[in-house]
């Protein structure tokens, strides 16, 4: 069901509560929190420009980190207000709470075109509990609700779901923002009847994270290319030796079922034929999180399909990467979720980079639509410098995965249906 869009609202002089995803990475520098990547802020500017241009009084709500109901100072959104003001070249007011009298007063005094950012909604437990009273307090602040936080739309929280229900119940309108609209279009509608060949590339850490997506996409894709650690669970299921590779032995049954389903539907399902392997060695040191630091020694290309007991697979090998690239270059639609190896380590990034170049080529030279979902996949593409050579990169992370699985996202479901 299509949802009402922010473009359809008559917002002049009205207060609009906009849920945004400002859960940006920050680092402490000389006692202050500094934003290290403002992508999520930048992605909302189109919606904000539209609202400000139309004379709305904009109230922004967002969460940052996991303060678990406490006023954790390092998770304050105050630095985001300053950054946003720089980016939109206009003042952005900030209030150090998200509900209550003080907030109501500041929100009530807004003029047309003003922007106000509220403090972290997760300073209250009531946010994640989707508490009706808290939702009602948020709803009181505004005439309309706009959700532009696709990355938080898979959670039924007060600021993503409850508030929309309250506004709808009083006959008010709740609309999707422009970023939300784009995400739903590319991860949803565009993949309903994709131009063919439709090539799906899946990788990353675990089969269990992606099995629902695999199951759904087997019904739509012409070819599925598998990389990352999850490839080794498939290999294990097929009876190959996987050495110390990251595998989920309890997922071999679902892996085989996916292979069977692909075969029955005539979908080409490719697994790596060669790998970059290395020997994991415990350094005896612990990282910041208290986990053992493992060094990967003697990386090498292994042509044989079986991985020796002392080694693990950390990237697809060059033969596999070339084969995958060849398939991708002929595609008219590409969906990519999950890197092909531990791309964070240059020694295991080549498979991911080769695939990234092929996806960019398919887009630029073959007119393919290329859609990238998954936080690490987007990171990998940006790391390879090809982020602007694909059709669409999702901001969604976990939300994009759930959406690709075909789940109805609570934050989307709660919006007003378009008539
Ligand atoms: P996304 O965020 O794009 O959905 P995932 O979170 O599923 O991707 O997986 C990304 C992680 O998987 C990366 O941190 C990467 O280092 C890791 N990874 C990829 N291949 C391997 C491998 N062969 N062994 C261990 N970890 C891997
Ligand atoms: Mg990830």
How is this structure best described in words?
Strand 9, helix 9 (207-217) and strand 10 form a beta-alpha-beta unit. The chain is 36% helix and 20% strand. The radius of gyration is 23 Å and the shape is globular. The chain has a six-stranded parallel β-sheet, with helices on both faces. Helix 9 (207-217) runs parallel beside helix 11 (252-264). It is built from 16 helices and 17 strands. It has helices at 39-42, 45-53, 78-88, 101-108, 125-128, 132-140, 158-169, 178-192, 207-217, 230-237, 252-264, 318-329, 350-365, 375-383, 398-404, 410-413; strands spanning 15-19, 26-29, 32-35, 57-61, 93-95, 115-118, 144-147, 174-176, 198-202, 223-226, 268-270, 275-286, 292-302, 312-316, 333-337, 369-373, 392-393. With 419 residues, the protein is α/β, with parallel strands linked by helices. Magnesium ion binds at residues 374-376.
In short:
With 419 residues, the protein is α/β, with parallel strands linked by helices.
Key structural traits:
20% strand, 419 residues, binds magnesium ion, 6-stranded parallel beta sheet, binds adenosine-5'-diphosphate, alpha/beta, 36% helix, single chain
> What is the overall number of helices?
16
Strand coverage percent: 15-25%
Structural class: alpha/beta
Query: What low-confidence regions span 5 or more consecutive residues with pLDDT below 50?
Result: none
Which percent bin holds the helix content?
25-40%
Shape, per Cα inertia axes: globular
Whole-Å distance between the termini? 9 Å
Q: What small molecules does this complex bind?
A: adenosine-5'-diphosphate, magnesium ion
């Amino acid at each position: 069901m299509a949802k009402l869009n922010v473009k359809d609202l008559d917002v002049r002089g009205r207060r609009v509560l906009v849920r945004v995803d400002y859960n940006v990475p920050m680092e402490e520098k000389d006692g202050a929190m500094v934003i290290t990547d403002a992508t999520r802020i930048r992605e909302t500017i189109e919606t904000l420009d539209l609202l400000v241009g139309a004379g709305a009084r904009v109230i922004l709500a967002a969460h940052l980190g996991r303060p678990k109901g406490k006023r954790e100072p390092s998770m304050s959104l105050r630095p985001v207000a300053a950054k946003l003001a720089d980016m939109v070249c206009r003042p952005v007011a900030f209030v150090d709470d998200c509900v209550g009298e003080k907030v109501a007063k500041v929100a009530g005094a807004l003029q047309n075109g003003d922007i106000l950012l509220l403090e972290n909604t997760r300073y209250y437990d009531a946010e994640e509990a989707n508490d009706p009273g808290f939702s009602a307090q948020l709803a009181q602040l505004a005439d309309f609700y706009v959700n532009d936080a696709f990355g938080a739309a898979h959670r039924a929280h007060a600021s993503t779901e409850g508030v929309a229900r309250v506004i709808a119940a009083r006959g008010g309108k709740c609309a999707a923002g422009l970023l939300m609209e784009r995400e739903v279009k590319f991860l949803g509608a565009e993949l309903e009847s994709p131009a063919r060949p439709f090539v799906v590339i899946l990788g990353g850490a675990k089969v269990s994270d992606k099995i629902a997506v695999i199951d759904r996409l087997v019904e739509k894709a012409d070819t599925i290319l598998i990389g990352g650690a999850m490839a080794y669970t498939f290999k294990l299921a097929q009876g190959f030796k996987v050495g110390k590779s990251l595998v989920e032995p309890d997922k071999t049954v679902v892996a085989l079922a996916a292979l069977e389903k692909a075969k029955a539907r005539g979908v080409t399902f490719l697994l790596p034929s060669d790998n970059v392997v290395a020997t994991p060695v415990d350094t005896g040191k612990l990282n910041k999180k208290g986990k053992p630091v493992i060094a990967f020694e003697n990386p090498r290309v292994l042509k044989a399909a079986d991985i020796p007991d002392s080694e693990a697979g950390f990237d697809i090998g060059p033969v596999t990467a070339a084969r995958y690239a060849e398939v991708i270059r002929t595609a008219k639609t590409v969906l990519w979720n999950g890197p092909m190896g531990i791309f964070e380590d240059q020694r295991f990034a080549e498979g991911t980079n080769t695939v990234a170049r092929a996806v960019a080529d398919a887009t630029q030279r073959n007119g393919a639509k290329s859609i990238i979902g998954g936080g690490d996949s987007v990171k990998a593409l940006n790391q390879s410098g090809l982020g602007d050579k694909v059709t669409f990169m999702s901001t969604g992370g976990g939300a994009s995965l759930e959406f690709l699985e075909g789940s109805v996202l609570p934050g989307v479901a709660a919006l007003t249906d378009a008539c």
